[in-house]
Amino acid sequence: MSVEAVTPEDALLRVSDLKIHFPIYKGVFRRKIGDVKAVDGVSFEIRRGETLGLVGESGCGKSTTGRAVLRLYDPTSGDVHFEDRDIAHLSNSEMRQMRPRMQMIFQDPQACLNPRMTVGAIIAEPLMEHTSMREAQRKERVQELLEAVGMNPNFVNRYPHEFSGGQRQRIGIARALALDPDFIVCDEPIAALDVSIQAQVVNLLEDLQDQRGLTYLFISHDLSMVQHIADRVAVMYLGKIMELASMEDLFSQPKHPYTQALLSAVPVPDPATEAKRERVILTGDVPSPSNPPEGCVFCTRCPIAQKKCFTEPPEWRELQPDQFVACHFAQ
Fold this sequence. Notes:
Elements: E1 11-26, E2 31-47, E3 51-55, H1 62-69, E4 77-82, E5 85-86, H2 92-98, E6 102-105, H3 119-130, H4 135-148, H5 165-177, E7 183-187, H6 195-212, E8 215-219, H7 223-229, E9 232-237, E10 240-246, H8 247-252, H9 257-264, H10 271-276, E11 316-320, E12 323-326
Parallel strand pairs: 3-8, 3-9, 6-7, 7-8
Antiparallel strand pairs: 1-2, 1-4, 4-5, 9-10, 10-12, 11-12
Helix pairs in contact: 3-4, 3-5, 4-5, 5-6
């Protein structure tokens, strides 16, 4: 997919200054003493039919961002526009009408499937909630969905515990596809799977995207897999996006020091190249999201940080076409 500048017309999802703060309470009287700033001013856009990869360390706010854009969490502030509607401020009844167009694939395929329900009932549940299909139509639709994700349609009466992790994730994908959505948040869909199965699930997601014109927000900490599936990549740290660029630009010429450090940790399948590579070792620990640094959130671990970085938040700026970075000194 081309990497031209996103315009309002071709953006399916537009997130502007999204913040998700969870209050911290203390004492017998539950007095509020602060906030955990899980997501703190995130902005990005996703074009129709593309995959935006969202990467970063555990706890940086990736999954919270994914859930917030689907309104599984109510934003503290900010806007989330799905086409021309700001879903961040819709009522529950209005949001219910939007649900069929946006779905989610969860990280743990075992925890997200009800062990007391058959596979057929799990996949048919969205159809019962949001459509007026009769039972025969639902059964036919469930079998079609199982076939679409590469599973035997005769498995409808089996239970989740009878399947492997990869098969359970395929069932979760089938459920997400049941209502023909336009947009799917893939929340680390391969993290709980064996390495031998991960590529199969990612290839399935790509095939379904080509067949159905789906748009993905693909959340992961596996940069090599993101490189395989994403059109553009956003790098997140402590609730903020540090860099956003096309997959090619981000992996060939990363601009932000944090992105450079992340990419230097990805192993290269060539012993000669791997031996010559220079690793960027970050010192220190990630600050608490309840008390982030005053300036740049990365300043306490940044190898090029200067006095300005500790006092002034960096401006979100475009270094070159479609490559954005939040750093005072990135060039």
